[in-house]
């Protein structure tokens, strides 16, 4: 059975279908999904535009009820949906279920936000005049999501868009359509009026381009590569639309001499290698001061020897496969580049064979790396990390901030002085102290600086900045 696109409240077959393949077992076809055309995308945009006037003026209880029903169903089906996610993306079952729970929590949070919509009433500088400041929906929102968080990222974009009264045209990554299709199906059955949410699966060059070219999309929120993000920005400027970009990262994790070694190693392994390193918040630069460097490297090697890399659905698996063959090639190419640049491959980096054919890669740790190397400058998006030796805290901070990116930054230290200074001076949107650089809560803002992000923050109450526009109204008393 081919899963179809949702356009104007109807499930529409595409002109062709594509297969969703399990990276833990390439013989396993997760499902077949209809590929939308540019014409389908334009029909979805037209449907969203037509649905906007009524939905933007819908009651807060209606929106609350739909989002709450969605949250309840996602949480009730967390094991089933988590397994689907792990089959199609390759992260472990525990991570897949955890991400599904997070998606449910996000919908639950924004269900509550429907009931907390507020404005301001201020006195005018002129007598007998009142001033009201309110937020209104932006209009038709285009949503383009990546493959690495196939249920959480769609949730944290779709939920606020609907909460604040926008209509949506949603294009998920073609590599992992299953989780996104499931969310749209749940929302559709939860009672969304036709045209409010439209799903168009397919190629970015076709569906995504049709969205970028349309003057009837009033805002686009995108998570993905830096190169594509720039194209989204250029197209959005041409149409004078709002745009929000979450792109790459080359996140540092600093380990100081005074760090608790066990805490530092666990945080570094989690940051660099869990979720197969396929997180924009992953730390691939481990910046370590001289006094602890050798002990840290030795402890990392021992910890990495015990990591279980296998089928994502197997009990006990800690790291699943790389998402597909193309990403695996990119990872191994960068491992070769690191060697050519003069870094020492201290551990891992080998292709692995398991009971089923899949894209298995042993996490790789480089030492003797410098911050000028390509493996230290460019986002690899795989389980590959480099250790950079530095003299002291001051040099560590300088190296940590010496990057075109600025999403997440971490430090392992028992010094309150250094932790406090790092939190203030790390050039990143998020800072972690004695914690992995990856892993954020659902109700607080998410986003970065420099080349990692553009526009207002995602998640939590800060989401209102993107999904609404401010109106100021004056009334003569």
UniProtKB/TrEMBL annotation:
The keyword Protease does not apply. Keywords: Oxidoreductase, Plasmid. Residues 11-472 form the Aldehyde dehydrogenase domain. The keyword Oxidoreductase applies. One of its GO terms (molecular function) is oxidoreductase activity, acting on the aldehyde or oxo group of donors, NAD or NADP as acceptor. It comes from the Bacteria. The active site is at residue 246. InterPro entries: Ald_DH/histidinol_DH, Ald_DH_C, Ald_DH_CS_CYS, Ald_DH_CS_GLU, Ald_DH_N, Aldehyde_DH_dom. It holds the Pfam family Aldedh. SUPFAM superfamilies: ALDH-like (SSF53720). Belongs to the aldehyde dehydrogenase family. PANTHER family: ALDEHYDE DEHYDROGENASE-RELATED (PTHR11699). This is Aldehyde dehydrogenase family protein. The lineage of its organism: Bacteria, Pseudomonadati, Pseudomonadota, Alphaproteobacteria, Hyphomicrobiales.
